[in-house]
Amino acid sequence: MQSHDLLEHVRSVFVRMTRYPDEVVVADADLEQDLGIDSVKRGEILATLRADFGLPDALKATPDELRTVASVSDFLSRTISARPGAAPRNGDAGGGGHAEAARHANGHGEAARHAGYANGHGEPARHASGHAEPAGYANGHVEPARHANGHAEPARHANGHVEPARYANGHAEPARHANGHAEPARHANGHVEPARYANGHVEPARYANGHAEPARHAPAARAALAGKTVLVTGSSRGLGRAIATKLGRAGARVVVNSFHSRDDGEAVADEICAAGGDAVHVWGSVANVAHIDKLFETIERDVGELHHFVNNASNGRFGPLEQTTPEHWELAFRTNVIGYHQCALRAARLMERRGGGRIVALSSNGSSRYLEHFGAMGAVKAAVESLTRALAVELAPRNVQVNCVSAGPIYGHVTSNYPDHERILPYWESRTPGGRLCTEEDVADAVLLLLSDGARMINGATLTVDGGGSLCI
């Protein structure tokens, strides 16, 4: 097999298995930094390539041999040279015939809620009727065509109509509670939330039914961001996911963004829609300016507006400063500071068209005090807070308010992966008044607060949300 054909075959496998845009999977793309492919996904891709060429399962590669798409191809070329006759078992030397199928492996042409510029032609795969954006706007509803083929999310559209459960009766999502199937776990008394909806009053009994946090799912909370479109970067898991789902419940149309896991990002968008909200997913890294450009081009073209932006995406290394390399610093600043700056400028341009908007950045109370293993990230987050204050002043003429939420250690994804967390977590709890840390939901509530109308005169502020932990740590 010629080297060019081998490279194209390798590219086609990457595109098929990641569903990343073809134009992103270039020869010199770094698997981790440019494509967000972790060791698990690398292993899956290598296993597929081994099977394609009939290579032994025991074949291993070093990280350097799998650093870029081209290096993977070179590794295979060397391996195949030692095994005459090895060739792709599917007979597709170049992989070109699979490029489009690879990008739309779910068989449904990337339904409109998954807006990640997938086929290199302005996303026609998401608009299968041949018209411009029919999936999102043709019938007056928000992206009904996402569910019109009978396969995507059938549980929500089982009668063949477009989102009847959410809109058919003319009220805001009552159908989710009127058919006896949606959200039964939250209505254990056999009635359809009568205390909150049936009597025409707003949440008269939201604290009387013994369930946790009923007010978070109530009509008044839903109205907080009704008609607003919000981008939440890094929202496929952890705190970002909690923020995205919180804003979806508050009535916002959420642009979910992910980089390291497209599947997880799409799952969050699906979750928001399944709960009666509205969401789209756009893939891309905020550490890559080309990705940022494409992200906002996609929002402008396919979503059409942006009112608020939540800068949640983060990357960096936890550990002693002696073990922090220049590469660690560069990645952390490129993601947390440069990415924030570049996204904020592009978001502000779209917000200005709508009369203004809000930007909320996520930081940490480690920005102003010492936390073990957080030295490098503390410096990076201090830069985020400083940048927030500068943006607040410079974007004010556009009626864009910029604030920051500084969170302490929180229960959830990040804390569970923190170095030596089994020892450190109890210490943090012991130094926090009340003896417990915040949850991801607690921080998401603070973000919602800063996006609400009641925060219209808060600008350039850093809101600490740590249960008082920073007073004692």
UniProtKB/TrEMBL annotation:
SUPFAM superfamilies according to UniProt: ACP-like, NAD(P)-binding Rossmann-fold domains
Record has Oxidoreductase as a keyword: yes
Disordered: region residues: 82-156
InterPro entries: ACP-like_sf (IPR036736), NAD(P)-bd_dom_sf (IPR036291), PP-bd_ACP (IPR009081), SDR_fam (IPR002347)
Span of domain Carrier: 10-75
Matches recorded under Pfam families: adh_short_C2, PP-binding
Alphabetically ordered keywords of this record: Oxidoreductase
Extent of Low complexity compositional bias: 82-91
GO molecular function: oxidoreductase activity
Xref: PANTHER family: OXIDOREDUCTASE, SHORT-CHAIN DEHYDROGENASE/REDUCTASE FAMILY (AFU_ORTHOLOGUE AFUA_5G02870), SHORT-CHAIN DEHYDROGENASE_REDUCTASE FAMILY PROTEIN
Similarity annotation: Belongs to the short-chain dehydrogenases/reductases (SDR) family.
Entry protein name: 3-oxoacyl-ACP reductase
Organism: Sorangium cellulosum (Polyangium cellulosum)
